[in-house]
């Protein structure tokens, strides 16, 4: 338990710190090369270019593309799986998982044509609200299951081989760095990005820790993949799936 809390907290601190460093670095670049103050759709490749030349730009672009592709695939599969579970839980409707993934991809494609984060800031606000509601419902669901599940809960020993799997999952939860500089560029006061990075990660940590702690104490080693799938109230489980 304590190892998980430490990993989650330290990862949040490191993620916030690197976000601050990226923001400071971008401000330095804007001071040295004023053209970046106007418009820059690809800030990370430009950083690579200023350090290593054109080869640095290509290298950074390749890394960002691979990272974004992997991140998008995970989210696409997660959304398709949640929709599939939702349809079956309430209406016993079975639709091919691959077909749902294709529909989700087609639905979100038009939004990818938007210029930058400022063009669809409403999506970020809706996502924040849905996450808060989802966390609240999960706490309600865990509290409902506590009396029954905690009677026979078991806590498996910590295995070092699981460390990297856990660490990868935790860092995935903080994986927003590829968009940080775009957010900063769209801010009215870009120099205040450090405050945004720290406060955002602190807020995220406040959401993650209660779920992690309560879920572990109630379900222990009996968790079925994720805490969401361990929730016994069907309507809570499926509502959280949709919100996530």
Overview features:
mainly alpha, signal, 10 helices, 244 residues, single chain, globular
Give a description of the structure.
- The chain crosses the membrane at residues 58-79, 86-108, 120-142, 163-180, 200-219.
- The chain is mainly α and 244 residues long.
- Helices cover 75% and strands 0% of the residues.
- Percent of residues in helices: over 70%
Overall geometric form: globular
Class derived from helix and strand content: mainly alpha
- How many helices? 10
Taking all residues together, what is the mean pLDDT? 87
The H/E string reads HHHHHHHHHH
Tell me the total number of β-strands: 0
Could you describe the largest sheet, including whether it forms a barrel?
none
First-residue to last-residue Cα separation: 24 Å
Q: What are the segments in which pLDDT stays under 50 over at least 5 consecutive residues? A: none
Q: Summarize this, please?
A:
The protein is mainly α and 244 residues long. It is 75% helix and 0% strand.
Note the topology.
Layout: H1 2-32, H2 43-52, H3 54-91, H4 97-108, H5 121-149, H6 163-173, H7 177-186, H8 193-219, H9 227-230, H10 234-243
Helix pairs in contact: 1-6, 1-7, 1-8, 2-3, 3-4, 3-10, 5-8, 5-10
């Amino acid at each position: 338990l304590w190892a998980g809390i430490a990993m989650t907290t330290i990862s949040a601190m490191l993620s916030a710190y690197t976000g601050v460093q990226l923001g400071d670095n971008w401000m330095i670049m804007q001071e040295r090369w004023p053209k970046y103050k106007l418009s820059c759709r690809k800030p990370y490749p430009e950083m690579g270019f200023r350090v290593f030349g054109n080869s640095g730009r290509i290298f950074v672009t390749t890394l960002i593309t691979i990272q974004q592709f992997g991140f998008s695939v995970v989210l696409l599969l997660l959304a398709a799986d949640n929709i599939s579970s939702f349809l079956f839980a309430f209406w016993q409707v079975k639709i091919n998982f691959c077909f749902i993934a294709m529909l989700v991809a087609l639905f979100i494609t038009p939004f990818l044509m938007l210029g930058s984060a400022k063009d669809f800031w409403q999506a970020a606000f809706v996502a924040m609200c849905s996450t808060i509601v989802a966390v609240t419902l999960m706490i309600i669901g865990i509290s409902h299951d506590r009396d029954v599940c905690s009677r026979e809960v078991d806590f498996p020993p910590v295995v070092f081989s699981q460390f990297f799997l856990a660490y990868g999952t935790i860092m995935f939860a903080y994986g927003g760095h590829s968009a940080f500089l775009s957010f900063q560029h769209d801010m009215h006061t870009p120099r205040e990005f450090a405050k945004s990075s720290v406060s955002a990660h602190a807020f995220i940590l406040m959401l993650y820790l209660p779920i992690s702690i309560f879920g572990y104490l109630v379900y222990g080693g009996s968790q079925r993949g994720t805490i969401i799938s361990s929730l016994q109230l069907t309507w809570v489980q499926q509502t959280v799936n949709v919100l996530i």
